[in-house]
Amino acid sequence: MSRLLSWMVRTGWSWARRTADIRAGSRAAQRFAAFGPGSSIAFPPATLFGEPWIEVGAHTLIGGDITLTAGMLPDLDLGPEPLIRIGDGCTIGRGSHVVAHLNIEIGNDVFTGPYVYITDQNHAYSDPETPVGRQWPLDDPVTIGAGSWIGANAVVLPGARLGRNCVVAAGSVVRPGDYPDHSVIAGVPGRVVRHYAPDSGWVPPLRSQNEDSTPLDADEATPPEH
Hints:
Blueprint: H1 2-19, E1 22-23, E2 34-35, E3 40-41, E4 47-49, E5 54-56, E6 61-62, E7 67-70, E8 84-86, E9 91-92, E10 97-100, E11 104-106, E12 111-112, E13 117-119, E14 121-122, E15 138-139, E16 142-144, E17 149-150, E18 155-156, E19 160-162, E20 167-168, E21 173-174, E22 177-179, E23 183-186, E24 191-197, E25 201-203
InterPro entries: Hexapep, Hexapeptide_acetyltransf, Trimer_LpxA-like_sf
Keywords: Acyltransferase, Transferase
Organism: Salinactinospora qingdaonensis
C-alpha cells in the first residue's frame, strides 16, 4: 500500500509540474496587471501575491519555487501603478526572489541564474534601542537594464540601478548606485571589475579562451558611481 501511495504521489506531482504552471490566458494569469503571450510561471511557486501590481511581459519564463510579491501582505491596495515590471523575453531562475514595496523594473531580455534575490526594501537600524526587525524599513527603487545577466545566488539591493547588458557575477551583492551600460560587477560588496569603452573596447581587455582565466585582482576594480 505504501509503495502504491508513493507511486500515486510521484505521478500526481509529475503531472502537476507539467501542467499546473501559470500561463497567459489562464485564470491565474488574469490576476496580474499584465501577463504577456508565451509567458509562464513554473509550478510550484513558493510565494506569490500582489499580482494586480505585477506586470510580466511576453515570452518570459519564470522558474519554479519563485517568490514574486508586491506589497507587505496579500490583498492590500497598493495604488494605481504596478510595483514590479518584468519585460519581454526574460528568464528568471528557479528559487529566485523578486520582492517589491515601491518599484522594481526589469528590462527586456534579462536572464538570471537560480536563487537570485532582488528587492527594493531593506531593514533600517538607525534607532539603537529598537529591534531592527521592528523599525520601519527603507525603500529605494531598483532598475535592471535590458539585456543584463545576473548569476546564481546574486543579491541586488535597494537603490541599485543597472544599465543595459550588465553582468553580475554569481554570489555578488550589488550595492545601491548607478552602474553604466556594459558593466561587469563582482564581489561582496559588488564592484565594477570590467567595463566597455566605445573608443577602446573592454577595460581590462577580455581574455581569450586559450589564455589564463585567473580572476581580476581587486586592485583592478573600480567602485560604481553613487
